[in-house]
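Summary for the steering committee. The consortium agreed at its last meeting that each partner would contribute one worked example illustrating the joint modelling workflow. Our contribution is presented below. We chose a case with several input lines so that the handling of multiple components could be demonstrated. No manual editing was applied between input and output; the record is shown as generated.
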Amino acid sequence: MWNFKSLQKPLMALFLLCLFPLGAMAQSIVKGTVNDEAGEPIIGATVKVDGTKVGAITDFNGNFTVDASSTSTLTISYVGYETQKVKVNGRSAITIVLKEDATTLNDVVVIGYGTMKKSDISGSVASVNTEQMMKRVPTNIAQGLQGAAPGVMVQMQDGAPDANAQVRIRGVATINGSPDPLYVVDGVQVGTNANFLNPSDVESIEILKDASATAIYGAAGANGVVMITTKHGQKGKTNLNITANIGLQTAPGNLDVVSIDEYAKTIRTARKNDGTAIWNEVWSEKYDGKRKYIDWLDEMTRTSLKQDYNLSASGGNDKTQYNASVGFLRNDGLVVNTQYQRLNARANVKTQINDFIEFGADVVFTHTDSHGSNNSVGNFGNLSSYRDYAFACPTMDFVSRGDATYDLDGVPAGTYVSPNVVNPDGTYGEVLAGKDTNDGMWGTTLGNMYAKQMEKNGRSRSNRALASAYLAITPIKGLTWKTLVSYDYTGASGNDFSGGIERWNIVDGKYINVTKGTNAYVNPGDNNAYSLSIWNNDGQTLDIQNTLTYNWSNDIHNLTVMLGNEVSRWYGQNASAGAKGFQSKDIRSIALNTGEYPVSAGGSLPLESRGISYFGRLAYSLMNRYNLTATIRRDGSSNFGEGNRWGTFPSAAASWRISEEPFMKDIKGLTNLKLRVGWGQTGNAGGIAGKGVAGLLMTNVKYSYYALGQGMGSPYTPGSYWVPGFYAGLVDTNLKWETNEQINFGLDLGLLNGDLNVTLDYFIRTSKDLLLDRQVRPSTGFSSVYTNYGEIENKGFEFSVAYNKQLTQDWGINVQLTGSTLKNKVKKMGEPVYYTNSDSSGQGTGDGSNTGAVGAASGYYWGNHSITKEGEAVGSFYGYRCIGIYTSESQFSEEHDVYVYDEKTGEQMFNQDGTPVTKKGLRYPDDTAGKTQLGDYIFEDVNNDGILDEKDMVVLGNGFPDLNFGITLGATYKNWDASLYMYGELGKQIFSYSAMRLSNMFASDDGTTPRILQEVANNAWSTDNPNAEYSRLSIQDQHHNMRASDKWVKNGDFLRIANLQIGYTLPRAIAQRLYLQSARISLSVANLATISGYNKYGDPETGGKILVTGLDTGRYPMPRTYTLGVNVTF
Amino acid sequence: MGLGLTSCDNDKFLTVTQTELLASSAMFESDDNAKSALTGCYDLMLPSGTAGHNGDPFKPYVFTTSHPTMDSQASGWDKAFCVQGWNAQTTELNDGWKHAYAAISRCNDFLSGLSNAEGLSENVKRHLEGEARALRGYQFHWLATTFGRVPMLGTGENYTTAPQKARAETHKEMWEFIIEDFKAAADLLDWQPLDGQYGRCTKGMALAYLGDSYMWLSYRTGEDHYAEAKAVFKQIIDSGTYELNPSFSTLFDADEAWGKEAIWQVILNEGPNWGSWDGSVWSEAHGWVGFYYGAPANGAWGTYACSYELYDAYENYLNDPVYGNAFDKRRDASLVTASMSEELLKSFGKDDLGDEIVKRWQQRFVPKAWVASPDNAQYIEGNTKKASIDRSDEGNNVITYNPNCPIGFNPFAQEWVGYSTPHREKGDIQPTVYSTKHWRNGRGTHWSGDQWLPDHIYMKRYANVLLDYAECCFRTGDEAEGWKYVDMIRNRAFGNLEVGKSAELTQKFTGYFKWCATYYADNGFGKWISSDEYPIPFNEETVKFPSAKEYYTMLKEVKGFTSEVWKIAVNEERRKEFNAEWSLKTDLQKSDYLVDHMEHNYPKNYPGTHETGIEQIYQWRTYRNFDFDIKKMDMPIPQDELIKNPLCDQNEAYR
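What follows is the complete predicted structure of the assembly.
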């Protein structure tokens, strides 16, 4: 028998289940569609029946179905749109149009170690419109930030395929530290560069600008913080997204330099002015029209392809969400044989284990591979400079001079040799490189630069893996404990193989090898041996952070308290090796070298870096009107000496949402009015590792001891008497972080019912205790000590104006204008800091960028062209003032004596007693030949001591623009969208080494006589052109007209039309038939045009390290890119 | 978990192993480490500058210790040091100042740590403290004798404890500080160097400078400390530790380092690294020494030339009725002049002593092997030098060998000395007399990379002590003892200590010159000939020479010196003994002889001499056209110090 009691409960349940539909019958089924203002359905919107637990999510077509009574009210919400309440009023079908929440006041933004409602934020935080950013198809994050937020100045360093961009948030407040912002990716500090991320993986970017926002990052937060959140899975249907962008890159156009015949004419004129003869017959008039013209820009650049593919899948359910993506970028550079490739892979998962435990993990891996550019080259051997192409000798032709030292084997004097860039058989021709650096002939560094570029085979590779996982526990409502553990690996390697160069010139149909034989003039001997160098380094950062966050709120109060702790450790190693002399061009093993040359090796385990931090934040909001945020962080770092390992960084900010006050409610159209004020302190410790740690120095410390009466021995009986030693260096063991103190005043304004939003900020940023090599009294035994001293101030005003309006069902527009002003000033410095843009060899930039070199100070008179001194901007331009041109001898000053030279022989004249003959004039002591002539520039004897020397150098300006701005114009019409993005700088000066090189014929940094601008050739001084703008043409330039002077300070204002894009989104109905959720196709043009008076010298967008801000030395050309983009989501 | 992971000892966690420098704590971990740390102090006895150990190493010392006496002279910018033209911006003064204080700073750091060091053996600790104090004393001695009053920095004083520092208020305070260092060092050190390593400071070194410092204290303050000085010098003499080298000539040869005459010196000897211009070694300094002292016409620079007044100061007796043939060998062992025609020499007439220049200036040796070599025939035949200014150095490559006038040959470097006039006119006027104390081992034309110039840079020789002792004897009334020691120096000068030792000396000191013959190329100044003979013959027989008292009594009368005869004797001997050494100016100054020396050896506007023009080039006397200001002998405190150390003021002569 069945036991009825055992069936009682199930039967009851069945009964109740049967009753349920009966009850539902009292309801009505309400169907509806949720669209946006453009009529497009909104997928995933939440529809809730007020007062019940009934609800629904809109489907693929924006449709929903709920059971609701005819008198009920529905609440429809979706992120980014204003929540709407709709009464059913007996309707069974409802169409709801959600308005975009233009003010996005309730958006949650990511801040340090947490999130916060935007409306509650009191600091200066800018959100980057990542959708707009991606329309520009940036290669990396830094590029993507360009013009995206006020107060964030982003300058492209060059147009190389892997070019970085320099990001400065609210100016520069350091000299020896890093000026770069901190990047935080999904809560993990990743350093001062996040370019390993694929921009398409980014969900949102917030830029914390003022100290009240960044102080939570303490010693790392001085230069602003870029908070990046990557894309994560969402609840709902699985999506598969594919994007492909294929671009064609072209050169933006050449500089207006002289033609080949005009070039020859400038050489003849310059030689005449110098009183010397032309060196090679090829420049004589009889060869006009006969020389083989080489357009180096054309030879060295190409139309190249830029490809960017991304594939991502995401999805999840209520418990678990995931996202995974892979991306591949290949950017074939504009310059031949340059390339950059990047492979990204990324995956994350988040799961709610139970009601109070959440677990998540992220993994990012990036591999890059580049070659051909940025290979430790400046203009000395750098084949990627726009200026190099322009001013290089436009032919390789020469006439054999019958001089065994200079000519080819077996080629008689007077033979006209016309080398090809590429010979018919594929070999390369060669100019008379290295043998004759006169008159347009070439130095050893360039030669046939196309051949040199094509022979580059060095590669640089990097790997970056960032893995993190977190566990969040919420034991009671409002209280969350979160532990985040991360591992960040960076590895880089590279190799280079060179040697075995061959060049052939064709004379009378015969190929002559110019790299062999007695008169070989290219890479003879040792220089041409095969040589291999290999290097690699890696670094690993382990980090763990714990936060305890408690939130309590009611209708009046909202309080959040966060306490946290973070511990990190970095360690790494590096190694390099090289060898010369191999039997074959294919060998890549150092062990197989011939033994003819020594093998070199180096490497180290660099100083470990460890940090411990404690931090906390209190955020309080009263009646959603009065907000207060305060943070404090205490950082300890192993990078400092024991005397000062710890620093404390506090901040506080308050805001008042005036618009929420009752008395403001009646103001029509005003959706937001908020006043903000903030103060905080942050630190900057860039590059300080170990400098505060006392230690013993050993390099080159030794002495020799002997036995009594011993002979000195060597060299004929070699022996060594040297004993090594060491001594204590001068170290400030109290070295500490630079302290940035910042005050911020801000105003947020929402008008026109939220269509127009304005943000204004004014800030004063003061950096104190700068890390400087401070000069000390020589009687200390040291010349300087690396210590904290000095002060820099940045003041600025920032604004952002955004207008976003759906005008009609079909038309919508959006406009955004961002801008910022900046005044940078050194308040306290002590001895000025001078700088010359050269590496230790006096060549190249030494900064790893591709910005080219200024050249050795002694050769080009540009030494100390940068000065940082009190009262001036960091890295101000430093040089002479040019006050005219000597147009008659009477202009030689009456105040000073100058040497006199024989007009015929050019020799200096002496009196009978052997003293020099002098006349009144200004003396140029560095003018060793003493041949100041009419047509030379007059430089101001500032101190009026009769000697034109470095004491007459003055500050000539600086590279900080008065205003930098970005403009985005957008419009939509039905399924079409168009956007135009522009950015620029106003009130900008450029200290243009490029302009100098393109205006002066002194043999260039590689021995070539520059091909000057046509404008300069037309306006060079001569007796026929006494009112000229430029000095006389001269190859010797013994007066040093080339010297760093205000003659080369140029107006650098520009407006760049950075991106123009037109897109078309497939109508949903059509997409659905193709089994797609959405599809969009776009066509864009990047770097369409640059409007600037500086274009004649190059690109006005100058980026570089701190002390060369505004210096232009010629860079890899910026390409114009035409991109076709496709984005489909399944 | 988080708490567990971060609840470590913070300071322990933040203390990382220094992988790229040696921890400070290592300095006194062992005897060996402490010795290495002291080597760090010795290191600054060698050149050091922005270019590592290369750069321009010895100019501060060469210039301040010699040029102001005018016994050495320079051209170009360096000439300022001969004519009191230096100033507070002068680079060399600033360099020397910084270098000395760098050494002092290292000594202070060392002494500061040593006082607390545990675990060192007592003997080592004692020695190291003594050496560090002696080194510090030496550096302050140079500063005090060069600049007058300077900031005195004791143990424990550094940038942190004393960001600014005033000069010593009085000379007395300063010299007592220095004396204290040398006294302590003398007490702590032995006569023999620690571990038998010559190059380290010893008791003898500390005492030599202690006595010297007493003399300076007396000179500066007017107090009489000569008896104390005399006692100290006597202690050195009586110790038997030191001896005069038998031959003055060999004092500067490569075949002996730290001979028994050396009390304190620097040896420039790059050993196996010779010829390298690497900043990590000192071989470039070898090159610099060559450039300083060699003849410009032979590829050097003209930083250091000696005066004809000095060349003429040496006694030479030729067929003298009393002394026969006797020569002060120090001249030919240390100086060489340019080649000059007999006609030119004859035109100079007689010197102050009434001797014909053409005879007095003859070198007393003949380079027989060199002349006999067919390889050198081109230099000794067939060319007539122009008796006019030859603006081309190259024109001097072919030189007529004139047995009647065989000057102009460097017997050690086996080179003809270019030029044919007493003064080199290219650039600024400069005498063509060069010091073979330092231009001995290499050739200027080899400067670019294959130069080996081992060099003795003496700061204190036993000869210094003997003359200092003699001076103290005179000043304390012990005149006979004083003359005895002056004559001891003269006896060696005339070669009498060489007698009977010729074979031994030849055997010991010719090896290097033979090696040079296998190495150095001609380079246009003659082929180096291997010879079994020493470049300058050693005396085989004792010669007679006048006593110092006799000779300098006569000299006082002839030249009109105003000083007492003993002072003239002591200091004129110093000139001839220590030319091109680093003690010359300081010794003359502490003896209060500089003014007399300048007034009578380099009289202003000497009658018949010319300041400019061709005539100036063809005269052997220096034309001095400025008033010698003894106050300027306290060089100006470098401007760099004044700017960065507001508590430091300037010397009186430069305010």
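Residues 91-116 of chain B form the longest helix (26 residues). The CA atoms of residues 604 and 624 of chain B lie 5 Å apart.
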